[in-house]
Amino acid sequence: MAPPLLLLKDVRLTFGGRPLLDGAEISVSAGERLGLVGRNGSGKSTLLKIAAGLVEADGGSRFVQPGATIRYLPQEPDLSGFATTRAYVEAGLAPGDDEHRAAYLLMALGLTGDEAPATLSGGEARRAALARTLAPEPDILLLDEPTNHLDLPAIEWLEAELKSSRSALVLISHDRRFLENLTRATLWLDRGRTRKLEKGFGAFEAWRDEQLAQEELERHKLDRQIEREKDWLRYGVTARRKRNMGRLRALDDLREKRRTQRKAQGSVQLTVTEGASSGALVVEAKSVSKAYDGRSIVADFSTRIARGDRIGLVGANGAGKTTLLNLLTGVLAPDEGVIRIGANVEIATLDQKRASLDPSTTLREALTHGRGDTVEVGGQTKHVVSYMKDFLFGPEQAGSPLSALSGGERGRLLLARALAQPSNLLVLDEPTNDLDLETLDLLQEMIGEYPGTVILVSHDRDFLDRTVDAVIASEGGGRWQEYAGGYADMIAQRGRGVDARGPAATPASEKPKATASPAAAPAARKKLSFKDQHALETLPKRIEKLEADIAKLAAKLADPQLYAKDPKAFAKTSDDLAKAEAEKAASEERWLELEMMREELAG
Where in the chain is the domain with CATH 1.10.287.380? Predict the structure, then answer.
């Protein structure tokens, strides 16, 4: 086995009086693809900074193979002191590095190189930092949340670029799909220590749950052992004659072990405050148009959103997602057309720009709106400190100003405020920003159980697939098209992902085969791909089988005694029938799309 390029051993660091890292380790070999995961606040970013040589640990060792090059992408890049983005990126090159690659990466990421750093948005600054980090093609890339502030086209481009890179990779990200597609091993930072799974992130969550279940079992065994020893002291024959000091010491040791045993961190408790039920119609748009400075943002768009719908809005940055969201919720008036909001609609909004947070306000004031010490949640009154604990805030943070909160903490705070507001229409603009994976899981469950309607904007492909039943996508030029299902379903129907604004980037420089943009690929095709041809040939048989299955399930449900005899079987049969009908509809739509494509190519 090749020696590691980078090795951290027994890393220890105390922060704010508490141990943040307690024996953490990282080993990175050439070409390795490692995902670093853990709760917000667990120390992932700090560990990555120690690996990059930017922070010195209290204890432990750091070894870098002589001659190995490392580049680090911080969460908040600093471009101050540079006249242009090109100067910033080229300053990261070493003698002998290819300057043309720096120019290519800037262009691929949608920058000209002439931008003044002071004028950049958060997303543009992140793109410039990515170009600077990737340009030297180092031996090891340390990337801290590289997809933050990036839109879907940029995320998919970056994914392809990293796949084609020869650099070893240590990656922190809350984007599940990104982690699944890029990692081959997973390092879990939990309560200051690291545990490694020699598989990619796709296998991590099941493995983590097994580890936590085993810990819980061991704690239970230890508790039982303590109880047995206590019973012996109370009732043992020997104990009545004289105390066995050795056994007493053993009990003390067990109690100390139980006290010091590491416990899993708590979970965010998401409770939504329901408003009165809305009418069956929530929002209806008819031939709506909106333009700014002569540029069409929404053109002749119509849709109908019913109670219980889960709608996702997707598009490149600048495509107009937030504008469309504001039109649908009545915040903006259309230039043309009609927006109708249904009866009894109560809206709760999560603002992606955190604009509703005053940095000088305390956490207590932000949650109670400056009124007392209680919060109304789900029809119950809770003390603000108790509600804070539901979102993993400590009691000592109640009087802290919001300026002291991390990005993840600000995200949790906005969730807490939005969910405490009575609503039957939940509007979430980039809700996944800065949230850890466990909080995302709970947010997904909450959306699934929410009895009202949800409209959300997100660049997180996995989150969209898990939460929405329809996607409204930007088609360019102000045109928006609705697709049934999640993001993956949209790609299956549309034939491609979200289009980038402006020239499409290629996944790897110097590779002619990758020069066509994903959006242009279907038009350039001379024949169907093998996968499409196979689907075209096999879908009819699949549809036939689904029709037969649907007929059998419908016949089973037709039995009037089924529910009375076996309610569980009735529920399962109903669920199976709904799934089969949905799959049949999707298969028919896909076959029709492929058949039209075949005819177009043949003609």
Answer: 525-602
Assigned CATH topology for domain 6-206: Rossmann fold (3.40.50)
Q: Which residues contact 289 (CB under 8 A, 6 or more apart)?
A: 296, 298, 299, 300, 301, 334, 335, 336, 337, 478
| DSSP-assigned beta bridge partners for residue 382 | 375
Question: To which CATH superfamily is domain 281-494 assigned?
Answer: P-loop containing nucleotide triphosphate hydrolases (3.40.50.300)
Homologous superfamily (CATH) for 525-602? Valyl-tRNA synthetase, C-terminal domain (1.10.287.380)
| Token pair for 424 | 């039957």
Which residue type occupies 246?
G
Q: In this structure, what are the phi and psi dihedrals at residue 424, rounded to the nearest 5 degrees?
A: -130, 0
Angle at 588 between CA 583 and CA 593, to 5 degrees: 125
Q: Walk along the chain (603 residues) in steps of 10 and give the mean pLDDT of each run.
A: 88 84 94 91 91 94 95 92 94 89 91 91 89 95 92 92 94 93 94 92 89 78 68 52 54 57 55 62 93 90 92 90 92 94 86 67 85 77 84 82 76 78 86 78 82 91 90 92 91 85 42 36 50 77 86 81 79 80 78 72 65
pLDDT value of residue 261: 52
User: Which one, of 327, 281, 284, 286, lies nearest residue 307 by Cα?
Assistant: 281
* Contact residues for 267 (Cβ-Cβ < 8 A; gap 6+): 438, 442
Full 3-state SS string of 418-457: HHHCCECEEEEECCCCCCCHHHHHHHHHHHHHCCCEEEEE
Domain with CATH 3.40.50.300 in the chain: 6-206, 281-494
- CA gap 295, 410 in Å, rounded: 34
**CB–CB of 554/533 below 8 Å?**
no
Note the pTM of the prediction, 2 decimals. 0.68
